[in-house]
Amino acid sequence: MKKRCAWVTSNPLYIKYHDEEWGIPVYEDRKLFEMLLLESFQAGLSWITILKKRENFRRAFDNFDYHKIAAYKAKKYTALVSDKGIVRNKLKIKAAISNAQNFIKIRDRYGSFSDFLWKFSNHKPIYNTFENSDKVPTANKLSDTISKELQNHGFQFVGTTIIYAYLQAIGMVNDHTKECFKYRSS
């Protein structure tokens, strides 16, 4: 049996997410936006809640197409607030629309969101060497910096803890612990 990071339960969604996504570097803008949207909705909830609703989010938010989301009007907002398949938090839904608009502004300014984001780590993943999950932080100086930068660009629901989870999700920070079969030190 494979040994995984301690946060992974026996839930097949968690196992698949851990084994196939978490900690693997993502450079494609649409996937970066998808994970940012999902992480922002996760605030105050468990990640498994979001994973269970992920396909509903994909459907409701036009396959995470930030151009479409940025153009959402009142009718679409009302439909999202009524959609029982997603997290129906009005502030988070408004933030998703606003964040899509700001995502596009960053792309326009920097060429891609990926270039903007990955510059904070010299365009390379950071491999941590934590013995176990008790040692893994929930935030650090990198997440503090990126959180503040995103907030300066108008993003919402991007506090340092959310951003640290985001950095783990997109593989900028690889926090697979030494006990995990996915661990690597560089």
Strand ordering within the main sheet:
1-2
Instruction: Please indicate the count of domains.
Output: 1
Strand residue percentage = under 5%
Topology order in helix (H) and strand (E) letters: HHHHHHHEHHE
Number of strands: 2
Question: How far is it from the N-terminal to the C-terminal residue, by CA?
Answer: 24 Å
Name the average pLDDT.
97
- Note poorly predicted spans: none
- What percent of the residues sit in helical stretches (DSSP H or I)? 40-55%
What class would the helix/strand composition place it in?
Answer: mainly alpha
Which tags fit this structure?
single chain, 186 residues, two-stranded parallel sheet, 9 helices
Report on this model:
With about 190 residues, this protein is mostly helical. The protein has a single domain (about 10-175), classed as Hypothetical protein, domain 2 (Endonuclease III, domain 1, Orthogonal Bundle), CATH 1.10.340. The protein is built from 9 helices and 2 strands, in the order αααααααβααβ. The chain has helices at about 10-20, 30-40, 45-60, 65-70, 75-80, 90-110, 115-120, 140-150, 160-170, and strands spanning about 125, 175. α2 (about 30-40) crosses α3 (about 45-60) and α8 (about 140-150) packs across α9 (about 160-170). The longest helix is centred in the middle third of the chain and has 21 residues, at about 90-110. About 30% of the residues are buried.
